[in-house]
Specification:
homodimer; alpha/beta; Molybdenum Cofactor Biosythetic Enzyme, Chain A; Molybdopterin biosynthesis moea protein, domain 2; Molybdopterin biosynthesis moeA protein, domain 3; six-stranded mixed beta sheet; 16% helix; MoeA_C_domain_IV_sf (chains A, B); molybdopterin molybdotransferase activity (chains A, B); metal-binding (chains A, B); molybdenum cofactor biosynthesis (chains A, B)
Chain lengths: 443, 443
């Protein structure tokens, strides 16, 4: 095992991980698969938009002004045009407008050749096949030239753009049915610990004797199989959900026993298949904590083993070539904190996504329960209040499997006294869960 | 067509739409499909967690104190226990601890029967098969009872909870492989307008003559087929991306011509297949704006036709039984504004999701370009700054196909003078796009 045992701040650790990290590749996909993906190259418009000159309104397309017909006609005064056609949206204009002629036209319809201007219906007066047109109001432009919104050859989207609804709409308007985006980074997810079993679980409890300490089973528990001395591999499901949301393609490696050779072998293979390896458990400093040794055995060079924060203090990071190995804590909420603050930036950078979880100030609606001797991240719920963002720390619970339930944010709390209600703290927003998100009803 | 032509504020319109709206149903899904879904019923723990008493640390499980062996032993002082077993995580303890006996134990391992307490390795001294244990520090509890985190039968998640990574992890830890969530609402998406064609487009331009006004084609445009007087149905792709993100299952209805009977027939069918119908185009007040008439023809009762805001002023809303029909503007950014502010709440409510896009204050980094005579929503980019949220209005562009590119927020601007840089405005956050999101490079 490597000698490195350096302790870093979160920011230093993140910098080490992200140094030189680049998207892992690019792939051509169909427009229908594009939402949420990241452009790997700029988009250049293959054609202009609108592709033809069109009307912005229901009204009349007018040719050159009529010569000598500027006399009053039936009470209305203005220029008199003769109506020679009607052009509906989606139809080809059958005429060319000469001087003194007009065509009734509808919003979005292609303008006939010879169109000089367009006037909205309510500003003109129609009498049979004549249209009487007053002076046009200044500045009113009711026609759009071809290419007035996008010129062919223009760069309309930059590499790195996330394709949301508006960007998808633009691509469709330009007729782009294939787009080159960054490849989804492949994240191999393993959980280490001989106490872990895969769902739906192992049959058979511990032989002999009653179940020490209870193992209370409710009436509905018949569906749950006996686990013996083991627990379900829950970290995999939690991290798979998080990594998928950050754009990763998740490759499951399954739970691994506390056996060094087995882990080294598994991690070697993982580095062939994946761009990044995330493990949970075995990140502590005891003789049964094998992660650092297994990372080294699989060819990794240790970057750090400790980050100065709670929870998530023990995080093993290693690099092998352009692949990263990250050993997160085995405790579920600690694993998630380390995921959000250290692994998510890596996965997002590999996918060409924006990287840093930015912090911003929010006002505490309840006091922090106790001072912390070290920088701490506290599960919380944040929401936009009328006067600004507010944040409530979640109630503390024994153990931790429920610590992060209902959270959408982490409070980034420096070492020192516990701030009280009404004081400002900094928060990291973890998801777009908004103000309506209710805390779970826990009786 | 109905006589109703009432104009409402955004909030009034939204209230009309949401009145009595309920999730459309529930469905049982596998855990792997659960991320991002919404619980349709509370989750009751089928078993306790941890399922067996376990150690929080690497150390020693101790039986009852030894009788008469509290003498100093080799320099160390304390109680002397005899080591009778080693229990690794995941293994069944082979012993029952009697008075004065101990077992070496590892984090997460099941405690032997008879365990009274656990002491971390670093607090004890081992001499061969003896363990010398000093007075335990007060308050230190290094063992977890079965059920100490979750008791069997306890309600751990409320109906309406969004299943994020932490909640998924909890379900996995409890061995729940099937979960009942709200059914995804079915959103039928249609675009009306005879000028629309489906991608990849129609062959053949307008016959005869040169292409009026240009139709500039770039060197790469050979892949784009001629559209004649038509444009691509881009609103469908934009709205499909947005509605999917809000949890809808999208049913495409394709572009519809400006023909009342065709639309009535299509919308009737849509209401059989979908929970909500979204259309774009035809929402204005001219004779070719058929949406209101088509909604009425399809059995809808008009709720409103105008919302006092820009853009998105013309929005047709109708109800037929428990189905809603929403006619959004045809202009792409206006359609998106109306989607986010009126349609998204409907889709989210039908899926049991949190509903209201909450607004919060942010400081303008650039002035709003001009005063607005009416409440306006302005495409913007918001990010959490060191001192709080900041927001920049996006540059205005001709037309609108690019108006929303790069936006992650809307500024909710009341009628009146244009606020300057440094002034506070209210924003609606539309996505979790964070501070690192770069504006597209448009030369």
């Amino acid at each position: 095992m490597a000698e490195v045992n350096a302790s870093f701040s979160l920011e230093e650790g993140r910098e080490l991980l992200l140094a030189g990290l680049k998207p892992t590749g690019r792939v051509k996909i169909k427009l229908a698969e594009a939402p949420g993906r990241i452009l790997a190259e700029p988009v250049v418009a293959p054609r202009s938009f609108p592709p033809f000159p069109r009307s912005r309104v229901d009204g009349y397309a007018l040719g050159l002004p009529p010569a000598g017909r500027e006399v009053p006609a039936g009470g209305a005064s203005g220029k008199i045009y003769r109506l020679v056609a009607t052009v509906a949206a989606g139809s080809c204009p059958a005429v060319t407008l000469g001087p003194g002629t007009a065509a009734a036209i509808f919003t979005g319809a292609r303008l006939p050749e010879g169109t000089m201007t367009v006037i909205p219906r309510e500003l003109a007066e129609r009498q049979g096949d004549l249209v009487i047109v007053p002076e046009l109001p200044p500045g009113g432009s009711f026609m759009e030239a071809a290419g007035s919104e996008v010129a062919a050859g223009e760069r309309v989207l930059a590499a790195g753009t996330e394709l949301g609804p508006a960007e998808i709409g633009l691509l469709a308007a330009l007729g782009l049915t294939e787009i080159t985006v960054y490849r989804s980074p492949r994240a191999v997810l393993a959980s280490s610990g001989s106490e872990l079993v895969e769902l739906p679980g192992l049959r058979g409890g511990c032989p002999g004797g009653r179940q020490a300490g209870g193992e209370a089973i409710s009436p509905v528990a018949s569906q749950v199989q006996a686990l013996g001395p083991r627990i379900y591999n829950s970290n995999f499901y939690a991290l798979a959900a998080a990594a998928s949301r950050d754009g990763a393609r998740v490759i499951p490696l399954g739970p691994l026993a506390d056996e060094l050779e087995e882990q080294v072998e598994a991690y070697r293979k993982a580095l062939e298949e994946g761009d990044v390896l995330l493990t949970t458990g075995g990140a502590g400093g005891s003789i049964r904590d094998l992660t650092a040794a297994a990372f080294t055995g699989a060819g990794g060079e240790i970057l750090f083993t400790t980050i100065r924060m709670r929870p998530g203090r023990r995080v093993i990071a290693a690099r092998r070539g352009d692949k990263l190995l990250l050993g997160l804590p085995g405790n579920p909420p600690a694993a998630l904190v380390a995921y959000y603050l250290l692994a998510a930036p890596v996965i997002r950078a590999l996918g060409g996504r924006e990287v840093l979880p930015a912090t911003f100030p929010a006002v505490l609606t309840a006091a922090i329960d106790k001072p912390r001797p070290e920088r701490a991240f506290i599960w919380a719920r944040a929401w936009p209040g009328t006067t600004g963002w507010q944040v409530a720390p979640l109630p503390r619970r024994p153990g931790g499997i429920r610590a992060a339930i209902g959270a959408n944010a982490l409070i980034d709390l420096p070492a020192g006294p516990a701030p009280g209600a009404g004081e400002e703290v900094r928060v990291v927003l973890l998801s777009a869960r908004g103000s309506q998100y209710g805390l779970p009803d826990n009786k």
